[in-house]
Amino acid sequence: MARPPEEVLLGFARALRAAGVAVTADRERTYLLAVSTVGLDDQAATYAAGRATLCGSPSDLERYDLVYAAWFRAERPGAARRPPVRPPTTMADLRGEPPPGGEGEGVDQDAVRATSSDTEVLRHRDIATMSATERAMLARMFASLRPRPPRRVAHRRRPSRRGDVDARSTLRDMVRRHGEPGPIRHRRRTDRPRRVVVLLDVSGSMSAYADSLLRLAHVWCRSGAPVEVFTLGTRLTHVTAALHQPDADRALVAAGRAIPDWSGGTRLADGIRAFLDRWGRRGMARGAVVVVISDGWERTDPEALGEQMRRVAGLGHRVVWANPHQGHAAYEPVQQGIVAALPYVDTFVAGHSLAAFAELLEVVADA
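^ that's the sequence the OP posted. Answer follows.
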């Protein structure tokens, strides 16, 4: 006799919890509601519903796929025999389309090639042109980003096998040995992570990219490097604490609650001035790599934006500006805000796709 669908789904959720995924009772209820909404007949939607409701972080996704395949393919005691269920691996699967190449020995290889091709295409797609399904896939791909903190030379010297002779330590050792000669001590300067300050434009002109930019900032914050994140719109908002939550979706919700001017107007100069007056001059921007991600539409005084960027360049180690429009071949930086800011920008890069974000992370790491 076949088991009720609810029992099978709850059993899968508990197996997922046993595999190390933090599946709570609330997530189980949300999972059952989501599956009942999409319907069990749609395998791709059922699979996606579980990933969206039961997984709390990118690290859970691999475990989810393994448990999903093991649970729904295995013959469980008392359960009816069911055909194997293959988790969706491509964008075609998520849309419910049949896999390329039909059925046969080459299906798995075709699926792998399709997955690689779809992933690579999605990495270079402009985020503003993506569908909801593609954005959902892109959100999971942010886990592939690996930020490296820029490094700076530390002021203090540390004991080392090589480097400058540490005369004080060498003489101290000789005194302890009553003047007997011994090994020569050395020391050298080490390096430490350099702070990164990220200023994200969340105004109306950047609304198509805002969700992905916050996901990028979340990856940055979770890397363990010293990173501070602010949003710019009609006012300045400090969202670092919200983005330090392990779960990306919850971090974005917390950040969204903290941002009062989401998709509003643009006052870049006022926001950067507020950052410098309250945090920057007190030490946060001193010697830091300052990253501004904005399209540069300044609705007040472009010259004021140039003046604030001059102050940023004077305090920071390097200034990096990422502009989503820079990724388009026909783009020219002719907006008044960009024209006023560029003289004080060390590196001007694109910020329209996941591949552009990966390049931005490398630029910052090498700064």
